[in-house]
Amino acid sequence: MIAMLKVDVSSLPRKGAAAARRFPLALSCAAIAAAALVLLVDPREQGTAGRAAWHIFAAATLGLPLFVALRMFAERKGWKPATTNAARIAVVVFAAACSVPVAADPTGLAVGPFAVLCMGVYPLVTLAPFPGRGEINGFWHYNRALLARFLFAVLLTQVLVAGIGFAGAGIGYVIGTGTPVTLYLRVSIVISVFVGSVIFLGGIPARPEELQTAFDYPRWLDILTRTILIPLVGLYLVILYAYGARIVVQASWPQGRVAEYILGFSAAGILTYLLVYPVREKAEGRLVPAFTRWFFPLVLPLTVLLFLSVWRRISDYGVTENRYFGVAAAAWLAAACIYFIAGKAKNIKAIPASIALLALLSSLGPWGAPGVSARSQAARLEKILVKNGILAAGRIRPAADVVPAQDEGEISRIVRYLAERHELDRITRWCEGGPKAESGQDVMARMGLSYDPNRRGHDIHFMARDARSLKVAGYDYSVKLSAQVSGANDTWEAPVNQPAGKKEAGYRLFLDGKNGKLFLTQGRDTILAADMVPLVWKLRTEFKDEAKASPVRVPRERLEIAESRGFVGIKVCLSEIVGTERDGTVRIDNVQGEVLVKTQP
């Protein structure tokens, strides 16, 4: 592997020292980033210290590529020390400013947006020595050298980390004590971040402009692209087109995860396109020319699937950072396809340059992902609160009626989303008086709701307080109703009367648990229907103060439903009703009671 990458291991110390002289500020950023990460892995360093370490890490991580790109650009342009130093000050200010809007806590929520922000600065390292539109050959060979050096740095540092891990485990076994996990993580961070940066920076070409005259194309790269990457990209393309055909045939919406597949496939395909770029017209066989000719035209239709997949989620649940980035990636991919299909230049420099620009625009400013997402979720919350009467005249008040479980769960999830991003001010501006809300629980309490972001539905269980005898006057039959209609058996039926010696069918009762209706039928005809769903909603509103109890005990007469049509009538007298409510839909699982039926005038 090392031989294929053309790396001289014996020159590592000399090149490391040269890197320290050439990129002192970049290596300083690597050291600071490693030190900040070492602090972050310590569970004791939480709170203010942990947040400070996180922001320092973010600033140093952004500063590292910026200082490298600045050095490369200054060397190519022949800047004087005064100009270079002024630019260095600008880089420090820019990196520090960009670290401010990064999420305050180093949680999983911060990783995605921060990674996109890094995509706005790291491509500058690939562009800095070749700032113009020309010198494409030198640009390609320079980036090939960067890729080889990066792979070598990763390989060497991770082998070293694994070796230290095995050595620590062996020592612990011999002396009978284990190696602290935190210590191992700290050593791994220092090796991976700082030592890896020294190795990588030591391999950056000293005079990249001389690579413009290079024409070598590694044999290992030819084998990798022609026998592995291009066939795999072709296979993924077939799979995605098959999925698209199924969507068209079934007339259904694409699922959310298809966006990840399309973006992953597109990234692999574009990387392959860049790797074969120098030999796209002179490679052996027809595979490489065919790939470079047809890749972008075949990807363009998939961007429609990508847009539809992300837009479906946005229309249902509003904008989040991930969906914002999904739309931005879809727009970029569509633009890249059009450029490489219809453009005359087809300059591969446009790929890293446009990625960097889009990533920066998507991460910073009021038009960026954090601001747009917070406004979108606040707007969704406002709409739900107004619908349920919680927000009126710009002020929050406790809910007067029972809020559907789906809405209550959705309110909780939006509040949690805003609280995790320190955006609760978008809600508290609706709160009049009282102390400032410090958490999602405080906000939900002011609405008179319980805070449960995981709620997707609500259990229903009402039972009669007493078991009084029923008055059957005016009815001809009494049928015991004891129906368990959950799971596979979601219906129940029972005969009302079976006329002796007559062929015609008598009356029957039929309960459909899915829609909560009890039908009185005669033969194939439906005579009457008693709907239990309105009864459930009425009970939830009337007895909302007892809603936390299970079962909720109510007067017997509140569990009655009467329906009539001409001289035929039914009266459903329930003693117990059990079910679930989810997404605003009620399903009946179990009912007990009596059904009185009148069939004679």
Your description of this structure?
By secondary structure, this protein is of the alpha+beta class. It folds into four domains: 216 residues, no CATH class; 130 residues; 86 residues, no CATH class; 139 residues, no CATH class. 55% of the residues lie in helices and 14% in strands. The strands form three sheets. Strands 3, 4, 9, 10, 11 and 12 form a six-stranded mixed beta sheet that branches. The chain has a four-stranded antiparallel beta sheet with strand order 5-6-7-8. Strands 1-2 form a two-stranded antiparallel sheet. A hairpin with a 4-residue loop joins strand 6 and strand 7. Helix 2 packs antiparallel against helix 8, helix 7 packs antiparallel against helix 8 and helix 11 packs antiparallel against helix 12.
Summed up, what is this model?
The chain is α+β, with helices and mostly antiparallel strands and 601 residues long.
